[in-house]
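tool_call predict_complex ligand=S-adenosyl-L-homocysteine
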Amino acid sequence: MKQGTVYLVGAGPGDPDLITVKAVECLKQADVVIYDFLAAPKLLKYAREEAEVIYVGKKGGDHTLPQDKINDLIVEKANQGLMVVRLKGGDPFVFGRGAEEAEELAKAGIPFEIVPGVTSAVAAPAYAGIPLTHRRYNTSVAFITGHEDPNKEESTIDWPKLATGVGTLVFFMGVKNLPNIAENLIAAGRDPKTPVALVRWGTTPQQVTLTGTLETIVAEAQTAGLKPPALIIVGGVVELRETLNWFEKKPLFGKTVVVTRARAQASDLVDKLSNLGAECFECPTIKVVPPDDWSHLDAAINNLETYDWLIFTSVNGVSFFFERLYEKGLDVRALKDVRTAAIGPATAKRLGEFGLKSDIVPETYQAESVVEAFEKEPMEHKHVLLPRAKEARPILPVELVRLGAVVNETTVYQTEQASDNVEMLIKRLEEGSIDIVTFTSSSTVKNFKALLPEDRFESLIEKVTVASIGPITTDTAKELGFKVDITAEDFTIPGLCEAILQHYA
Ligand code: SAH
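tool_result ok
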């Protein structure tokens, strides 16, 4: 049997974008992915659907699987001829026991490769605005375990040399031992006024940074109730945070935003909000599914040349229409000289991906505005095919008929209520850790409301800021009892993000 290879892969420090290209390639090819507490679960999206994904934990002392069992598991999977990715937080060879796992592999004669990662020791301080070196401050850095048992007879850490011989000190796993660390450094000759920072969950939207000095940091950490995982950074460079702190100053840093769009459509909004510093809580309230019956669309596709216009009102409409067209063995050539129209920029962009342009560009992205654009076109007796959602508003077909067109409205997809993550949503609403809820269509509002227990609706959303993509969605939300704080002026995802930004500016 073929021998499997093991890749010991660094997952980076937390921000899922801080993974290497090579790590992504490995994940895409893996048969098995074995991952840790500190490896961002978001990275699992790179794995194939068929890949076996195993969580082996390790949160502080609480190991889901002890290290020797993890080693056995890796060896066993590789011996089955599988390509194994062992995904580890940060860099696999920096305090991650990656070296021990590699030793086991070497001993068992299993081929392995190491894919270095961005270690938290470098990334978390960087996101806190602390460079580990600076010509004005220091010429050396040390990475140190803060996990050493303080009751150990003789420390293997050479405190006097560290305290006085190294510029910047970075301690891993040291939160519990912070009092000993500070005390040992002072006792060994480091100036008690030396600046210290603690960075918890660095590079993520939950990042927390505390600063003080060797004298004060223990009390500060206690007051703040700071828990692991965090790094302790000791040295003059910590002062630079005052000027260089950038990540925590992002406009939506510290805000949690609920995204209610269907999962397949959410990434655009999630990426934009994340780039603004927000934590996105994905709670898709709808899912997009094919229609119950294709026969109506099939008949239209069979007679495509009889249409003058093909009008799309959503990205999904475009996607489902062409998917069906392809399934029937056809492609865009079947459209011949049918003119095409898209209601908004995202829909037009999707249309462009099939090589088609929108022959009209409405001023705003609402059915009303599309109607205005068509008023300038000769529509009398023109045949229009309108592939849309089952639940779409009737205004567009009604108005096109008023202009004299013959409209064939056909369902190419429908939305169903989704309820992923509801328990977590309710828990977070209860504890008040949700700042904003975004609605990108009337159906997201209706379904969101349906997810919440009726008798507690008002108290749950009382303190939440509601942001809507446009006036139609806002009206629906108001009718259903939401107080809408933000309505986008440009009815698009970028427009929604802009409106949220302005609200907090
Ligand atoms: N191999 C990892 C370190 C594993 S040891 C790396 O290169 O980053 C686990 C310790 O790393 C934690 O106790 C904590 O001290 C630190 N750590 C890991 N990720 C962190 C993060 N995002 N923010 C702060 N500290 C982190």
